[in-house]
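Appendix C reproduces, verbatim, an entry submitted by the partner laboratory led by Prof. M.T., so that reviewers can inspect both the input and the predicted structure.
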Amino acid sequence: MTLINSLIETQEFATLPPVAMKVLSLLEDENLDVRDLSNVIEADASLTLKLLRVANSPLYATRSEIRTIHQAIITLGLNRLTNIVLGVSIFSKFLISSQKHAAELMEKFWWHASCTGMVAKSLSGKIQKYFKEAEFIGGLLHDIGKMAMLQYDSKKYQDVVYLINEKGMKDSDAEMEIFGLNHDEVGAEIARLWKLPVELSKIISCHSNPRSAGEYKELVAIVRLADELCEIWGAGFYEGITTLNIEGESSWNILCESYPELEELDVEIFTFELEEEFKKSSSFLNIIIGDTN
C-alpha cells in the first residue's frame, strides 16, 4: 500500500458522509425530483438543523425565514443548496471526529478553513462574480489534504510546522520533506475517492497554483487569495506566508486578467473592507459547532 493510500483509505476519508453520497448520486439523475432530495437531507435531523441555520444566517440575508429544506432549495437554488450540503456535512463530520487528534492544531485548522470560506464568499460578492457557493465550500475544504496528513501522523505534522516556522520553508516543501508528498496531492486523491464535483476538486488540488486549474482558474484564484489573506490576518494554518502584496500575487493577477474592471479598484480600500467582512468569520463555525451532539 502506498503512503497516499495509507493516509486516506485506512481512515474515514475513504468515503463521504452518507447524506453527501446520496445527494451526489441523486444529482446524476436528469429527472431529479427536488422532493426526493429534500427527503434524503431531512432524514438527517442534525444536518437539516445546521443547513437551516446556515440558510437563515447573515451569510445569505434571505427576505423571509426558511423553514424547510424544500424551501431552501427554492430560495437558494439547487446548485447552491447542494454545495452547502456537501460543505456542511463534510465539515461537521470531520470537525467532530478530528477532536482527538492534536487538538490545538485541529482547532487552528478549522478556524482557517472557516475563515477562508467566508473570505472567499465575501471576495466573490465584492467583485460581483458568483460561483454558486463553490468558492465558499471550496474555501472550507481546500486544505482537506492537510487534515488527512495531520490525523494520520500528528507528530510528523508537528515536524512540518517546525520546518515552516523555524526554517522558513513553504508548506508544500516542508510536507514533501517529511511525508514525501504534499497536501494538494493528498487532497486531490480524497476528492477523487469522494467523486466531488469538478470545481471543488480543482480548488482542492490546484489552490497552491491557480493557473493549473484551467477553465476553473478564476474560481480557484478567489479561494487562493482568500487563503493568503487569512494567513496574514491571523487565521492562517502554517503556509509560510508572512507578508502579502496583493497586486503582485498570481491569484490577483488571474482575476484582473479575466475581469479587467478590477484594475480600477483601490486595492487598499478594497482589502480594508474585505478584512471587516473577515471579522464575521466566526459565525459559520459557531453554526456548525452549535449542534455537535
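Residues 16-99 form one domain. Additional entries are available on request from the coordinating office.
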